[in-house]
Amino acid sequence: MFTETIDLPAAPPFDLAPSLRFVCGFTPTSGEQAIREGTLTKALRARGRTVVAQIVQAGSGVRVTLYGAEPLTSDVTEAAADRVRFHLSLDDDLTGFYALGRDDPGFAPVLDRLHGYHQVKFPTPLENLVWAILSQRTPIAAAAKAKRAMFGEFGNRLTVDGAEHTAFPDFDQLVSLPERRLTELAGNQRKGGHLHGALLAWHETDEEFLRTGPYEQVKDFLLGLPGVGPWSANFVLIRGLGRMEETPVEKALLGAASRAYGRTFTEAELRKLAERYGPWQGYWAHYLRAAA
To answer: Average of pLDDT values for 129-133?
Structure first.
């Protein structure tokens, strides 16, 4: 086993503890990582390699120990570090968001409860897209079963400290699967077709554009993928890419806001409140849900 340890800074304020609590309750990735005594252990794909990252708080950032079955070259280490940094949103500067939240009496207690929490995204936007398609009009248990089948397809496994960890397939692996096999894994012909079409269309862009490109262009790209409607596109924008410019007003958010503010909202009232947070409205909505 080969190892390398790197320190990654985080934009303050940052606290890994609320991130770990969030991961423990996040159904789409349940059982896909280990959390013990303040340490997050997760398998990732980096430059076509499977690595395991053990992540702990270190000062105002995190310390990451990477494990690999082969020597960890600089490009693999850099790709894994980027994946960890993005997964935990370490670079998110929350200064403006916190300033707005402190001036919102109903929301300030939520900030206190989650102080230092940076959104935990899906490890990759592609994994978020796959989950969005698998979970459409489907019981969570069935979607989770299909996702586990994809985990087992390529043997992206590595044992660290006696425990086996498996990484979700990367794009090159998933796009290599014929539509027939995707349908078998998804357990549904329509979803297999959507996955196949979406993966082929993914060739048209790259993750850097999705992360940083003009918001409307990225949204239009996602909406053009097979099986992706407005809800799924917003889901991937926020939870897979950290694009916080918009937030959909739906039942769960209405309930979370009502609990935080101690009053009921109409959809129009909640949209007006969200607009107050401008480019941070996605973070505002995510904090409300996470606090609930």
So the answer is: 97
C-alpha neighbours within 13 Å on the C-beta side of residue 50? 19
Half-sphere exposure of 139 (CA within 13 A, CB side): 4
Question: For 42-111, what is the HEC assignment?
Answer: EEEEECCEEEEEEEEEECCEEEEEEEECCCCCHHHHHHHHHHHHHHCCCCCCCHHHHHHHHCCCCCHHHH
Residue type, 146: A
Residue 249 clears pLDDT 90, i.e. is over it: no
Amino acid (1-letter code) at residue 142: A
| CA 267 – CA 257 distance, rounded (Å) | 11
**Dist. CA 170–CA 15, nearest whole Å:** 29
Q: Taking a C-beta distance cutoff of 8 angstroms, is the pair 194, 226 a contact?
A: yes
Q: What percent of the chain has pLDDT over 70?
A: 100
| CA distance to 154, 183, 243, per residue, from 178 (Å) | 14, 9, 31
**Residue 133 confidence (pLDDT) above 90:** yes
Residues 6+ apart with CB under 8 A from 115: 13, 15, 18
Question: pTM (2 decimals)?
Answer: 0.94
Q: What share of the chain is helix, strand, coil (3-state, %, to 5)?
A: 50, 15, 35
**In terms of C-beta distances under 8 Å and separation of at least 24 residues, what long-range contacts does 175-179 make, across chains too?**
175/199, 175/200, 175/202, 175/203, 177/153
Q: What is the pLDDT of residues 21-79, one digit of tens each?
A: 999 999 999 999 999 999 999 999 999 999 999 999 999 999 999 999 999 999 999 99
Side chain identity, residue 268: A
**Rounded Cα–Cα distance for residues 123 and 88 (Å):** 8
Closest CA to 37 of 20, 58, 22: 20
Query: What's the confidence (pLDDT) of residue 247?
Result: 87
What is the DSSP code (8-state) at residue 245? S
Q: Are 113 and 287 in contact (CB under 8 A)?
A: no
